[in-house]
Amino acid sequence: MAGNLTHTRSGWGSGRVGPLWELFFRFGPPRWSDYIRSNWAGQRLVISVPYLWLLLFFLVPFLIVLKISFAEFSPLGRPPYEPVLRWLEDGALQIKLEFASYSYLLHEPLYVSAWLYSIKVAAVSTVFCLLVAYPMAYAIARSSPASRNVLLMLVILPFWTSFLLRVYAWIGLLKTDGVINQFLMAIGIIDEPLAMMNTSFAVYIGIVYSYLPFMILPLYSNLEKHDQTLLEAAQDLGAGPIRSFFRITLPLSFPGVVAGSLLVFIPAVGEYVIPTLLGRTDQLMIAGLLSDEFFRNRDWPRASSVAIAMLLLLVVPIMIFQHFQNRELRANKR
Amino acid sequence: MAERRSEKLKFEPWRDPGAQAYVRIENVTRKFGDFVAVNNVSLKIYQREIFCLLGGSGCGKSTLLRMLAGFEAVTAGSIFIDGQDMAGIPPYERPVNMMFQSYALFPHMTVEKNIAFGLEQERLSRSEIATRVTEILDIVKLGEFAVRKPHQLSGGQRQRVALARALAKRPKLLLLDEPLGALDKKLREHTQFELINIQEQLGVTFMVVTHDQEEAMTLASRIGVMNRGEIVQIGTPTEIYEFPSSEFVADFIGSVNMFEGRLVEDLPDRVRIQSDELGGLVYVDHGISAAPSATLWVAIRPEKIDIQRTPPASTHENCVKGVVKEIAYMGDVSIFLVRIDTGKIIRVTLPNIERLSDDERIMWDETVYLTWHPGSPVVVTQ
Ligand SMILES: Nc1ncnc2c1ncn2[C@@H]1O[C@H](COP(=O)(O)OP(=O)(O)O)[C@@H](O)[C@H]1O
Ligand SMILES: [Mg+2]
């Protein structure tokens, strides 16, 4: 064991740890981090903790849900279900998979439309989130180091209040006799209140508002690292500021765009609170449907199969995409 | 080669009063807050020149270059390129290109695309762009690397891509900020000559910033020596080396022995200077312009001093006695550090022309006599 506590130059803020951490650890790194960095065994231990955590609280529940999704619906409405795997008396292994829930998902138009609607809402919200977040992240990255921290603080400040409260606050703004309608009518732009509550529009607003920091932070941490001399070089070669942006800054910020978009898109597809409080009553998103199956119909197998289908349809393409993305990134970095 | 050399010697547009300067920098000053980075610089650069800005780190070389490229605003004064006032003209509309010290290659583009970038901004046809990219890749000998990305290249290759990218637009004036700074010594020397060849081949005017005086000497048709934001001397490499105009330049360029002194005899064709630092008289066979009471410095290059064991016929002037304190064998030359009676250390270099046996060679702690020709000392007044 090399027990020396040599202080290495790279601090917590360096490397792959994002700028958010930099804020938290601004007041000096904890002592034990030095110890861990100089000690291989300790490092392994620290790395294995999150993996153990994921194994216990993600993989195991996932397997349980997977098992339930293949079970038969029991009128009792809750477990125990017939086991999927069973040793018969003659020593053979019986595997019994019930595909009823899955085939129902494919044949019931309600599910297909909820699924498509969720994708649409998430995609539209992600695009708007990107359009709002990019200029903000760009401005923060270009501001002076002193004001940069303040601006970043402001971006994450809303996290200090409850998510639910913030969504409720939008009801007060958007409803028929809400702040926005009253204001617009008072200044005479509209005669009748706009119907904003319980529309897709309200859901977009809610998602863009709530998820904005998840888009800004990865974009910022990418843009902040850009080498300004590249822009000077582009200008020197005859490209004006706008062309330089589209040819240099934008392509180089692509990893940040992808990271931010994934951070917004994935949870937005499964968003439950915002569409429930602000969204349409005639069109559910996939999470709303799942919750109905589970709490109202008490159909655990079907609810589980919805969850599994959601995971597969979303995660597999994203993982493939990320795989190629990483390869590209590694090639560009070195 | 010899022919080219003689052509080069004849190329001296700055001596021709009728010649039009391609770049005119007139009383240009740049301040950052209260700090004056470039102070009242005036400069003329002629077409097909290689002009080197030479100075220590932080003396304002890059700032001056960036003002020419348009990245840095001018606090006072004006810059004319090809007769046109550059005030208010953004970098992307100036007829100059710059090669950045860090190369600033676009990491997401191949070599080819990097070079084509500037041409695309001129809205040339695709085939025209392709032809010119191939052409310039040939010149910098990078044809086979066209589809590589910058991170797949060595430092020297990246340097050539940066050069090619800047040259592809066929600028009349190319600005190079420490173009060879990131290369190792061997490669740097090789690349210096390559740079000169390319410059002659394309007939571009180069303005090169460097802190390396050897590099400036090799590349430049003229050198402008900078100190603390000011240009202290402009001249050909020979002029700067042989006739430095100030103590700073003499000291900065190469190594030199300096002695403070005062005039004791001031004639139009010769002077005598008494130096207490040297402990003797210096006889100079040309006249100088200085007030009789002014403090002077006599600068003598180490290679212009002769070292011998036996006293010369006359020790009255241009001669000083000392003891060898240090000898460094450098291969091509040997350096002797000799302490003279006043305590000052004088540096002398001798070429190692013959192989000497040990008892022929001058050794440590020997008493020696240092002499020099009356034409060798340079007298500066500031
Ligand atoms: N943007 C800036 N703000 C403040 N000071 C600067 C700026 N750019 C350069 N300087 C200062 O101006 C001086 C000259 O810089 P520079 O031209 O880069 O020197 P060099 O001769 O090494 O290229 C330096 O002291 C530097 O600190
Ligand atoms: Mg510099």
Q: What's the gist of this structure?
A:
Chain A has 334 residues and is mainly α.
CATH topology of chain A: MetI-like fold
- Mean pLDDT metric of chain B: 91
Biggest beta-sheet profile of chain B: 6 strands, mixed
Rg of chain B from C-alpha positions? 25 Å
**What is the CATH architecture descriptor of chain A?**
Orthogonal Bundle
Q: DSSP helix count of chain B?
A: 9
Structural class designation of chain A: mainly alpha
What this model shows, in words?
The complex is a heterodimer of chains A (334) and B (382). Chain A is an all-alpha fold. Chain A has one domain (100-333): MetI-like fold. Chain A contains 15 helices and 2 strands. Chain A has a two-stranded antiparallel sheet. The longest helix of chain A has 34 residues, at 109-142. Chain A is globular, with a radius of gyration of 25 Å. Mean pLDDT of chain A is 83; it is low at 1-30. Chain B has helices at residues 2-10, 61-69, 111-121, 126-139, 155-167, 185-202, 213-219, 237-242, 247-252; strands at 23-32, 35-45, 50-55, 76-81, 84-85, 96-99, 173-177, 205-210, 222-227, 230-235, 257-267, 270-275, 280-284, 296-300, 305-308, 319-329, 333-340, 345-351, 367-372, 378-380. Helix content of chain B is 24%, strand content 34%. Chain B is globular and about 80 Å long. In chain B, the strands form 4 sheets. Chain B has a 6-stranded mixed beta sheet with strand order 6-7-8-3-9-10, with helices on both faces. The interface between A and B is medium-sized, with 21 and 25 residues. Bound molecules: adenosine-5'-diphosphate and magnesium ion. The site of magnesium ion has 2 residues of chain B, from helix 2.
